[in-house]
Structure formats: structure tokens, C-alpha cells
Amino acid sequence: MSQGLFATLQQLLGAAYVQSSEEAAPYLTDKQGRYVGQVIAAVHPANTEEVAAVVRACVASDTPVVVQGGNTGLMGGATPDASGSAVLLLLDRLNRVRAVDTDNDTLTVEAGCILQTVQDVARNAARLFPLSLGAEGSCTIGGNLGTNAGGTAVLRYGNTRELTLGLEVVTAQGEIWNGLRGLRKDNTGYDLRDLFIGSEGTLGIITAATLKLFPLPKAQATALLAFDSLAQAVQFLSHARAGFGASLTAFELLSGDCLALLREQFPKGPQPFLGAVQPWFALLELSDNHSESHAREAFESVLGDAFEQELLANALIAESLAQSEGLWLLRENMSEAQKRAGRNMKHDISVPISQVEAFVDHTDALLQQHFPGVRNFTFGHLGDGNLRYNVAHPLDSTVEAHMANYAALSLLVHDSAHAHGGSISAEHGIGQRKVGLLDRYKSPVELDLMRRIKHALDPNNLLNPGKVVEVIAS
Ligand SMILES: Cc1cc2nc3c(=O)[nH]c(=O)nc-3n(C[C@H](O)[C@H](O)[C@H](O)COP(=O)(O)OP(=O)(O)OC[C@H]3O[C@@H](n4cnc5c(N)ncnc54)[C@H](O)[C@@H]3O)c2cc1C
Q1: Do 389 and 413 meet the contact criterion of CB atoms below 8 Å apart?
Q2: FAD-binding PCMH-type domain spans which residues (predicted)?
Q3: Measured in angstroms, how far is the CA atom of residue 329 from the centroid of ligand 1?
Q4: So what's the pLDDT on residue 471?
């Protein structure tokens, strides 16, 4: 059967665009090297019609289909299982810009477009596409939509969902739904678009999207701020929101331990606040639609008030683009700094901003009680209540011994996030890594509704099976 399907796929796409499992090896391991899959074939369709034809061929042979974009996802969502029974759908050839519409401030692109390319296309049209994340040089719009990616500008512009007006989707039956409407208002029944966004390839294959564009800011201002406590950082954030309004674009937290780790791993990198005693820092970015001087005035006024009200311990304001990039490098280098220091346990959690301090205090203490000596490297998108709550091995122990505690330690972190009104996945999704956890944190009613949606759209469970929601055989 699989030989027959391989030949059919070659006929549909041309032999050059159908790879065997061996040839497709680079696509079969996830970004973090946790999962390795096998496939009947990996295919590179040229357009939406070819995607639909591939899905129909797979349906006819009862073959699962796994869609992959840039393979930068962190939950193993784009990696097929090891059974070798699936077809991997790669959208690298669906990379056309279909329309730039500056009257409506929209951009229509195919799902395989790299995020950075989309940002560039918008900038060339004197517009901003604000989605921005560490993997932007290799992740795709399809993957961003599949995971409802967040990133550093959610505070101002929202997640990928909020940046999307319309979609084109190939259904689990191989039909094409053209929902590429660029309307800001459209209340005509169930919102199918929102169903597909964040569904991680389990409900349909997104082949194109109409995205929102925004005015390019006239000026940007960046500062690194130091705080005496997390509570102070949270109070400052509220003050900054009131003072800057919609101009506040990013508020990225870094603990003092993160800053020390960056110094250790990047001794030639930027070294702000050397010798500072504060335990928490945050990178603040302001986007101003008036002018450099307007941004500067707003900065001075809001930061000045904050000092007077003791909402801030210290501030370092970037005086040039180079300085601003240097400050952002701190945040961007955090993943690499941790990698260089050895594997650690990563948790992408969110809690209401009002609960951030309670969550951190409670969870840090609980960890020391159960796993003495572990080291916290907590950073993340504080403006969205989204923390990277990462835990490294005790200095008197090994990485291997620490990682052996993964299940118990992570359960404790996730239980704590849940108990503080939060989520076990803020922006990375569920994939295969967290699929077993939903039973613990979602109500039976919510899970049942999710399973019913999955069954209604993909009754044969052929789209990315084993991801997001476990389907109970009927
Ligand atoms: C250094 C680094 C920094 C990161 N920072 C962030 C961050 O700040 N915020 C954030 O949200 N994420 C972040 N991520 C995670 C990752 O980059 C995002 O999840 C990204 O959106 C994935 O895009 P991708 O094209 O690589 O998707 P993939 O990894 O290929 O796929 C991810 C999921 O989406 C599905 N999918 C892919 N394409 C489609 C499609 N066309 N239709 C339907 N489903 C599809 C896949 O099946 C899979 O389930 C980061 C990752 C790295 C490595």
C-alpha cells in the first residue's frame, strides 16, 4: 500500500518533490532532538491544489498527514511518530506573497513564507507586521498560525490570532476552503478561522493567510530597568501601561540570575548593570508614532514618575540603535546561554500578571523543598504574564540526574501554574510533549468539546494524530 501511495504522490507532484524517509531525515527530528519520526514519504507540493491532492490521496489510503513549517516548534508537534505510517507535508514551496493591500492594511501570504520575509515585505510597503520571535529567521507563517505564536510584541499587538483576518485551508477531506477575507468585521456564523488557528495541524492544513498590517513606528525607545522585587516590576508595568498607553510594545523580564548567566556565557557580550544587586530586570520597548523627541519625552516623564514613586530601582536608556540592539541581545541570547550551560527543564507557563509574584515565590520554595539546590532561570514576556520558568541542575549534581526528575518536577511547576489561575502552555502549544497533561488541567466538558470538534472536522483522525488532543477510539 505504501509503495502505491509513494508512486501516486510522485505522479501528483513530480518525482523530484517526493522524498523517502532516509532522504527526509533532516525533517524527521524535532528542534530539540527529543523526537525522531519515520515516514512513507515527505512531499513538497507547489501550491494549494497540490496540497489538497496530497491530502485526498492520503485519505484514500487511510494515511496520516503531518504538516511541518520551519520545524522550530518546541513541543514536537511537527514530527511524525516512529511507526513510518504517515506522510510529511512540507510547505517550503508555498512561499509566495499573494497581495499587499495598503488601503486595507493587509498582506496575503502563503503558509510557507518565512516570518522574517513577511516582516520585510511589510516594511518595504512602509508598514509593520509586528509578530516577532527568536525563531523568526526560520519559522513560517503556517507554523505561527498552527501554534498561535506569541513573541515579544503581544503586549501591544496580540498573538498571531489577533494579527489574522482570513485563512485558506485544506480540510481533512482534501477540500479547499477559501476564507481569505480581509474584513475587520464579519459576524456571519461560527468563526472557522479561529478554530484552525492554534490547532497545530490537527484540524486542517493552512495554506495561506490574510494578515493585518500596522503603521511603521516613527521612533523606538529601549531601556533596561532594574527592580528591587518582582512585585515592584509588576507595579511598574501597571504604571507604564497607564503612562505609555498603546505605545508600550514589550516588557521582557530577566532575573538577576539570568543576567549573571549571560555574562558567564557571553563574556564579550553587553554587560549592563555590572555589579548591580537588584534581583529582577526588565527590557522595556516603546514604539512612538510621532517622533524621536516625543518618545524621549514620554520616556523621561514615565520613568521620572516611577523613580519618585519608588516603582523602579535603576534605568539604563539606550542612546542609539546599537545600544538598543545590545540590550535586546540579552533577551535573545537567553536560550543559547542556557544551552551552553547544559540542558535544563523548560516551562512555558502563563498566570494572570497579578499572580506572577505569588507563583514565582511559591514555586521556587516548593522546588527547594522537593529538589534542593536546583537553580531557577526565570525570564519571559512579563507583559503577557508568560514566563519561561526554567530550572537547572544543582551545582553539586549532574544534568543527567536532574533531568531524570523531569516528570515529577514539571508536574509540580504545572500544578502550581494551574493553582495560580494559569496555563501549562502559554504560547508553544501542546504538540506531543504535553498531550498527556490536558486530562489533568482541563475539565471533562472542555476536553469533550475539543474531541467533538476534532471528530467533526477530521473523523478518521488522519491530521497530525497523537498531537494536542488524544482521540478515544469509538
Ligand atoms: C529560539 C526560539 C525562540 C522561540 N520563541 C518563541 C516565542 O517567543 N513565542 C512563540 O510563540 N514561539 C516561540 N518559539 C517556538 C516556535 O518558533 C513557534 O512555535 C513557531 O510559530 C513555529 O513555527 P514553525 O514554522 O517552525 O512551525 P513547525 O515547528 O514546523 O510546526 C509547529 C506546529 O504547527 C503545525 N503547522 C505547521 N505549519 C502548519 C500549517 N501550514 N497549517 C497548520 N498547522 C501547521 C505543525 O504541524 C506543528 O504542530 C521559539 C522557538 C525557538 C527555536
Answers
A1: yes
A2: 35-216
A3: 21
A4: 85
Task: Give the domains, in start order, of the chain with CATH numbers.
Answer: 2-90 (3.30.43.10), 97-215 (3.30.465.10), 219-336 (3.30.70.2190)
Does residue 474 surpass a pLDDT of 70?
no
| pLDDT tens readout for residues 250-293 | 999 999 999 999 999 999 988 888 888 899 999 999 998 888 88
Residue 1 has pLDDT above 60, yes or no: no
Q: What residue has cell string 503612562?
A: 243
pTM comes to 0.95
Cα-Cα end-to-end distance for the chain: 25
Residues with CB under 6 A from ligand 1: 31, 67-74, 77-78, 91, 111, 133-135, 139-140, 142-144, 146-147, 149-151, 200-201, 205-206, 335, 427-428, 431, 464, 467
Question: Which atom of ligand 1 lies at the shortest distance from residue 68's CA?
Answer: 30
Q: Which residue in the block uniquely carries the three cell numbers 498571531?
A: 160
Contact 126, 144 (CB under 8 A): no
The CA–CA distances, whole Å, from 469 to 36, 104, 149, 408 equal 20, 37, 19, 22
